[in-house]
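Q: Predict the bound structure with 2-acetamido-2-deoxy-beta-D-glucopyranose.
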Amino acid sequence: MEKKMSSLSALALLLLWMPLAMAKLHTHQFVVEATPVKRLCKTHNTITVNGMYPGPTLEVNNGDTLVVKVINRARYNVTIHWHGVRQMRSAWADGPEFVTQCPIRAGKSYTYRFTIQGQEGTLWWHAHSSWLRATVYGGLIIRPKQGDAYPFPKPHRETPLLLGEWWDANPIDVVREASRSGAAPNVSDAYTINGQPGDLYNCSAKHTLIVPINPGQTNLLRVVNSALNQELFFKVANHKLTVVAADASYVKPFSTSVLMLGPGQTTDVLITANQPPNRYHIAARAYASAQGAPFDNTTTTAILQYHNFSSPSAKPVAALMPAFNDTPTVTAFTRSLRSPRRVEVPTKIDHNLFFTVGLGLNNCPRGARARNCQGPNGTRFAASMNNVSFVLPSNFSLLQAHQQGLRGVFTTDFPARPPTQFDYTGNVSRSLWQPMRGTRLYKLKYGEAVQVVLQGTSIFTAENHPIHLHGYDFYIVAEGFGNFNPTRDTPKFNLVDPPMRNTASVPVGGWAVIRFVADNPGVWLMHCHLDVHITWGLAMAFLVDNGVGELQTLQPPPPDLPLC
Ligand SMILES: *[C@@H]1O[C@H](CO)[C@@H](O)[C@H](O)[C@H]1NC(C)=O
Ligand SMILES: *[C@@H]1O[C@H](CO)[C@@H](O)[C@H](O)[C@H]1NC(C)=O
Ligand SMILES: *[C@@H]1O[C@H](CO)[C@@H](O)[C@H](O)[C@H]1NC(C)=O
Ligand SMILES: *[C@@H]1O[C@H](CO)[C@@H](O)[C@H](O)[C@H]1NC(C)=O
Ligand SMILES: *[C@@H]1O[C@H](CO)[C@@H](O)[C@H](O)[C@H]1NC(C)=O
Ligand SMILES: *[C@@H]1O[C@H](CO)[C@@H](O)[C@H](O)[C@H]1NC(C)=O
Ligand SMILES: *[C@@H]1O[C@H](CO)[C@@H](O)[C@H](O)[C@H]1NC(C)=O
Ligand SMILES: *[C@@H]1O[C@H](CO)[C@@H](O)[C@H](O)[C@H]1NC(C)=O
Ligand SMILES: *[C@@H]1O[C@H](CO)[C@@H](O)[C@H](O)[C@H]1NC(C)=O
Ligand SMILES: [Cu+2]
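A: Predicted complex:
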């Protein structure tokens, strides 16, 4: 009897100890530095991490801890954001500049420390300072805990595919020029897959990624939209894709021939080599929902190459892409995303919020120089949520100001609903187009349940906005077109198996409804992931208070936290 007891408690001890023993610590060093990179026939001194474009893709298991020392040897301020990582109690490691930290100045360093908790699939990391993320980004692959399996047959091979955007200019010059002029920034010159534009561009035959596959086998493609300003369609010629995860949450598998990803979003798909052995284009090009706005209409390609394919000289089989404005295809895709099974969606809502998201125009003050007023009809472009165009502080980060109780850096009066009600998606009176500036946060108590209706506006132009929330995953319980109507639309909410994401594509001229529980203390930015729109102010932040006890309290700031 005694022997049995002790072996039982030994087993219990072992079980307690095992998960700790299996979680790993990954330490990395990221040196941010200028590196010559040649694309589209020209060499640029490009800002990279460790001389790589794109930067390194990190591979971890759920439960692991990352310690990444970022050394800034570039001539710009920089920060790194771990896109989609929940950062439970570790908001200091989230990364958006002037939100959770001041920038790492040239010559300085900062070490990001955080643990992956309960997330599996594909995320990514990117610079969160000016437009540096154009070239400073990489993948973050999170596999199940060691010993756990995928909820789908183990693929033979896994390939991360990071879709990017390339300017034949310094991207920082592009955004600086736009900030000065008030006009829309120049569009990019190419899209890329893992940094390669592909064989449809000049001088790029060598810059084409080959993705090998063996006949009959099934591979996992981890697709990330790392582009700056463009939502993208993604296809593989003649092949069906089975979607198994999005934004590092599994989904109910479904088959499709086309994906749409907004910047920030990820989609994991299985692909089976069931076609004649050949070379097939993997292609991405714009989903451009804003009417009349200029966009980069080029197509990036990689090549899915079967082992032993028959005719090496023949051109790859082309992918037939949807039309640039094919919104019905986007709607069909986003509405196919479901959680794998019934999930616990918050139903007792403490904060029922309604946020308009969209563009605007600032009239130029009298006496302003014409060169600073090159937006439509002598204005400057703006963007806002609930008519507040978000302004970052410059003397303290929001999180630091919150933690130290400093006044004068921000206010907590972000409006719960638009200050004026109007026909959001109709012909909006010109008198409503100019937003006000502000650093206004919305305060939540620990554990409160939040619903946000994200309502697109047609001010200047309607557009599909990829809205990203830091520090949280949320359920997308509904989306639709036109103005959200609570009486008509609330009964249609999916409270059974809605998808969980960190970035919601708010339909062009429409709305999306998200729900989450404020269980992570800190200051969390919510913004459009089209960088041109965040540059114009399409952002706000939630301030989430501490709860009770250490496990509901923000950790103390790390000693090397950069100050302003
Ligand atoms: C933007 O495009 C215009 C017109 O092609 C060009 O003159 C200008 O130099 C570009 N700006 C940057 C920063 O590349
Ligand atoms: C590619 O090169 C050709 C010939 O030099 C030129 O006419 C064309 O404009 C170039 N295309 C792009 C996209 O640069
Ligand atoms: C490729 O062809 C060779 C020779 O015909 C054969 O031995 C091999 O199994 C083939 N490989 C695949 C993956 O089909
Ligand atoms: C892209 O735009 C250019 C100029 O605006 C146009 O000449 C070209 O036909 C367009 N290409 C596609 C594929 O639509
Ligand atoms: C600019 O002015 C023209 C002429 O007055 C007008 O037709 C157009 O709608 C205006 N555009 C904007 C964006 O205000
Ligand atoms: C920070 O800057 C803002 C805006 O310039 C100013 O109002 C505020 O007083 C400053 N806060 C502190 C604590 O210095
Ligand atoms: C929008 O309203 C303005 C004035 O309120 C009117 O001049 C304009 O013609 C309308 N545009 C459309 C497309 O209905
Ligand atoms: C936004 O605020 C400005 C300044 O108060 C006002 O002129 C404008 O009409 C407002 N627009 C909306 C959509 O509320
Ligand atoms: C870099 O960040 C500091 C605050 O930490 C700021 O004062 C400075 O203006 C920034 N430099 C540039 C070039 O943005
Ligand atoms: Cu946007």
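A: The pocket of copper (II) ion (ligand 10) is lined by residues 465, 528, 530, 533, 538 (CB under 6 Å).
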